[in-house]
Structure prediction request, 226 residues.
Amino acid sequence: SQQGEEDPQALSIQEGENATMNCSYKTSINNLQWYRQNSGRGLVHLILIRSNEREKHSGRLRVTLDTSKKSSSLLITASRAADTASYFCATVSNTGNQFYFGTGTSLTVIP
Amino acid sequence: EPEVTQTPSHQVTQMGQEVILRCVPISNHLYFYWYRQILGQKVEFLVSFYNNEISEKSEIFDDQFSVERPDGSNFTLKIRSTKLEDSAMYFCASSKTSGSADTQYFGPGTRLTVL
Prediction:
């Protein structure tokens, strides 16, 4: 299976703290993407990192990719209560048509 | 900002009935997808569609499922004879190019409840 697997499964932090979520996958990839899902809602794209990139930033988000370890991390700095959501990494099939989502990390930011 | 839209937001149906879930992808996108998420579980790929034909499908996408692009804007998922286990959130997504080079933009989902 190419599915990404996130850890931890759940994370609870105080507002203002940083949150780090990790993702591991099994096969070679062209890119890896992170999505956020608020409870009962759709998936919101956060950031895409290509296989030839090691780090990428977008606002308070920082994503790293280590293709040798087949792992990625998502760091949210200075967390806010509004960051409370589930975060998923997604890898793409070799055909480029199918996304494989992991089980997600449920982040709770306590005000 | 363009977005993927889905209707209805919630569909309740009796087991054995046919349902059609509708999606309007982003207008200049060429690749379309359906995913489902059973409550509390991960998002699962169902099917991808390009150039008016299915390009890839998962084991979940059996003969009960079909997709169609009936006109230039809509993309539909039909479930012919719903089962209780079809109850889930169904997400439509679209991308400008293939997912290996591009991101997929997701709609807000349709919650399907089969009674």
Chain A touches chain B at residues 3, 30-31, 33, 35, 40-45, 48, 88, 92-104 (CB under 8 Å). The radius of gyration of chain A is 13 Å.
